[in-house]
Every structure is written in structure tokens, then in C-alpha cells.
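Re: the request from the purification team.
They wanted to know what the chain is likely to look like in 3D before they choose a buffer screen. I agreed to run a prediction and write the result into the notebook, where they can find it.
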Amino acid sequence: MRVTHRWGTALGAIAATASALLIAPGTAQAADVERAAWECPKGYVCFWTKAGGKGTRCYVDVDIPRWTTAACNDYRFMSVFNNAKTNTGEPAHVRSYRGYDYTGERHHFVPGAKSGLASDPNPRGVRMRSVAWAWS
């Protein structure tokens, strides 16, 4: 699995752009660039640091027992969009966990779901440390 983060410096931007061109399917990525609300590549689940699919976006299309991309590991996410499909075109459910190795509080996102993650117990959003794909 290849993991990428785009840094704000010119050198980091050049390296990240070069890496982005070489990324193969099955990746976890982070990009700290403002995008259109809810913009999420087909086949991925995307998490944002602001409500309404805005802010910094981290996205993934594979199981990740230990999401260790520096930025994604530290962010508190406020919104999510499951834009996933399996290799056969069937919708895929996503489960994300607050702990590594699929532990801790679990969130379940059905295919096509666009949801807010902030709540009374978590007004600043939630951290996601592992992500798993499921049939239901």
C-alpha cells in the first residue's frame, strides 16, 4: 500500500504531485487542498475535517488496520461520504473505528451515505484509526 500526503511547501507539493501520478489502486491518501463539497473519488470512502464534506480530505479504498498517514491519524473528522463500489460493482459498506486494529467506537456507513460525524459526545468530530470494508 502506498500512502501519500501533500505538504504545503513547494518541495513537498512537487514530491506529492509526482507520487500522486504513480499511485496504484489500493491506497490511502490525504490532501490538504480545499475542494468542492463532497468531492470523493468513485470507489473510495472520504473523511473531511469540516462539516458538509469540506476542509481537509482523507480517503481510502482498502482495509487499513492502522491508518498511520501522519495527517489522517491526527485529524478529527466532521463529515464522511461512502462513494464505494466493490470490484463487481456491488455497493460496499464501510466500518471505521476510533482505535487501531478495528477497536474502539465503530461507525458504519452504507453505500452512498453522506454524514456528519460531530455529535454531543464528539462536538469536534472523531478520529479514525482503522477502516474496514464489508458487504453489509
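For the purification team: The chain has one domain: 27-134.
Please add any questions underneath this entry.
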